[in-house]
## 1
Amino acid sequence: MTDAPRRTALDATHRALGATMTDFAGWDMPLRYGSERDEHVAVRTRAGLFDLSHMGEITVTGPRAADLLDFALVGNIGGVAVGRARYTMICDAGGGILDDLIVYRLGETEYMVVANASNAQVVLDALTERASGFDAEVRDDRDAYALLAVQGPESPGILKGLTDADLDGLKYYAGLPGTVAGVPALIARTGYTGEDGFELFVRPADAPALWEALTEAGKGAGLVPCGLSCRDTLRLEAGMPLYGHELTTDTTPFDAGLGRVVKFEKTTNGGDFVGRAALEAARDRAAARPPRKLVGLIAEGRRVPRAGYPVVGPDGAVVGEVTSGAPSPTVGKPVAMAYVDAAYAEPGTSGVAVDIRGTHEPYEVVALPFYKRQK
């Protein structure tokens, strides 16, 4: 007998809005409210409101919290200023990616690690295990937060009317405490859509009132509720990796083209961190003979590739594999991310196709991302 999916504090709100719900990483989450294409376009051109309460918050506190995170994660977390955030990863001893994370430094000795819903327990267990010997506490705060996101070009204007926080001074990948519609919140300028936007960490009990206040404030700006389906196409267009697709335990950050997040130069703990030796070897391998590279593919036709479909070269031999694919409302054609052999990874490479149920559909190799907002 399987456990029933967990429900967020906004579950009744989603159902009242007629959302199509789906089980995602053990949570009952809104997939879409109406047309996922309309929701996608709203975020690109106006604003969208998301419930992301399935994400996993883990608090790390104590005199050696920074040292623990520098040892447990691949990034230089001790170098993050209070009020700022950093994108990083947690790897196993073999260099495989356990999850990609955002770490917020809330105070001198307090951090919040935000893990993907599907990996939150894995990350919590790994941090707890790696905390041995450090004067630091790892706390499961998944039930302490609901997470709402307002994303899109109109999001700063919508939020400004509800908060006295200095949004103009809030940089990308920064977070500050404040109130939004009278609700205490950590206001972060982060997101997973490729647009400007904010993520609001609040108490679960405050989430329904905040959702209503944001909905009301966003009426004139064209704000719409958005589900996980358009979040996936938005992040795909923005070239952002998704765990379980572009990132897995069989993938190192260097395989994923994200070696920049690994900071070998950090000096805490004598420069040691979990996976260091394996990641040095992965770096050297990638420099000597690049493995498969993550690229963008744009369809010449209309058929949509899906994760796991083979990528083939001019002679029909398999040269890669699709990791994510979907119709792109912004590009106007199906797009995909795929790992392909380095010989086929140059933008403009011709003769590449995706094997879609036995038919070789032609695709153009392009550099990621497919979409980058004008700042």
## 2
Amino acid sequence: MKILVTGVAGFIGFHTAKTLIERGDEVLGLDNLNDYYDVGLKEARLMQLQGRPGFRFVKADLADRQAIMDQFRREAPKRVVHLAAQAGVRYSITNPHAYADSNLTGFLNILEGCRQMETEHCVFASSSSVYGANTRMPFRVSDTVDHPMSLYAATKKANELMAHTYAHLYKLPMTGLRFFTVYGPWGRPDMAYFSFTKKILAGEPIEVFNHGQLARDFTYVDDIVAGVVGTLDHVAASNPKWSGDTPDPATSLAPYRLFNIGNSDPVDLMTFIGEIEAATGREAKKVLVGMQAGDVMATFADVEALRSAVGFTPSTPLKVGIRRFVDWYRGYNGV
């Protein structure tokens, strides 16, 4: 099966493409290789994919309507895994237009490509950040998410609405996945676990936000990819029991589904740092600081819907996942 994976040089996109190729799918990978973080890392990920049978890479920007449509018409992918986006909560505060270009205009171009080529199924990346000011834990996909805390979160909520509209109007099967704090080898340098590891190994201090009073549902990348691929294989369908009198945000009469994809086991920040200290064999020099703008106190995914739908069962303990990341980091950077 020919599958378009956008954001293929990104963290989750790289791992997803690798898994699809290894099981025999043909993957068209798309990425613009922007400089939001180290382009060299993105190119190194691509080098792990280049030359594998069934893989082809195209450099293109999501916001370039003609380039995206040309790829859809030329390749006619059967299914799409849309992972490309401008990521980051803090970056959205200082660079808002990047999020409109990539996450809104770019996603619209993907939706139009899927519509015109009658794609069988599109799985797209949403985010746990859409829960915003919600405080009832664990977060459930049936909860309303109308109070985002950052522009990044707002664009991800908008993606869910856009996807439902296309599912409704054109019967285009759409599945959104709300990712919860993904970590692991080949990860993103802007994520806390990556920067903590880098600074701890270099003997530099780390900033611990909200004085460590934060908790995150850290989810290992292999578990995430298993959920992404499993979801791709289960095409979204209409929920015949859906009612406009008591609307469920996670399903629809249209072929549309939303799922949380996380470890469903939140860990407090100080415990998380302790695991990095154990894996590196170094004690962190901690600088306790206040809360960041746009941040939330905790994330906690209820993944029962995804477990029921595709058998999603995250199985990587934090200690094991952090050790694998630190081992990769040392090898990649020679430290």
## 3
Amino acid sequence: MTSAPQRPQADRLTEEYYTAVRVPPDVAALASVPDTLAPGSPAKVGILDLAFALRGGRTELVGRYQKTPLQIMRPLWIDPALPGMAYVYLMATGGGIAQADRYRMDFRCGPDTEVHLTTQAATKIFRMEHDYATQRVHLTADAGAYVEYLPDPLIPFADARFYQHTEVTVAPGATVLVGDTLTAGRLARGERHAYRLLATDLRIRRPDGTLLALDTLRLAPGRPGSGVLGPGVFAGHDHVASLFAVTDRVPAARLADTLHEALAGLGVLYGVSVLPRDCGAWVRLLDDSPVRVADAHRAAWHAVRRLLTGHPAPDLRKP
């Protein structure tokens, strides 16, 4: 399997390209015409399409298309243990996601590439009075690739309306780590589950369509029986984080044991399980402290990185 060729620019600017497919009914019901900029207007569509290939022993960015407000600067090679690994910081010039925004990001990682993708800062989802915002993420890892997609937390403001669909395609022989963290809101301002609606879907599959993992979240705090604080979601805490690791480099049980060992004694509530078809393992952790959650999530990532590559993770410093 090889990475798909670059799309013509005109194709990326069509509504079908950047609009989320199968928007959940509760989100779609909020559709309306804003009294500001409508969906599809300038600055309301953010697109990032990146392709990576192995060149001379180093992972290089060989294809890039970006449309404000989404952008990157350039890859960095900052890991002394894995000098060929490309580190890419994803940025949004608007400071956050606003009503009627439509974002799409594609990351195509070719055979034997090593790529780390993260955001420059937390993603803020602003207050919305009309319509909603969506973000599509597509990540493809070809055989032999090692890819980490570890964005900073999502922070939904009061009355935010947001849907994110993440599609990860992992070829046999590839390794992908996907992480996420969600907060209950702007806690310092007293906003705790004050958003209108938050929905996310994560699908991990093989190139032939075989489904490996599916994680679905639907949060509507104002709706009776929505269960935002229930045991399967926040369980009364302010922060929830997950890490999925799909790989065939080590047995799934060993990967799960490594996650257990990394998180034991850190003081957070967590659960670890192997993924279907023994394709890897995943962990979900909960706590009221953003510092403890971030430290635990980092500890899980570091432990998995060392197990799968034999090397520690670098110290990533962000502004």
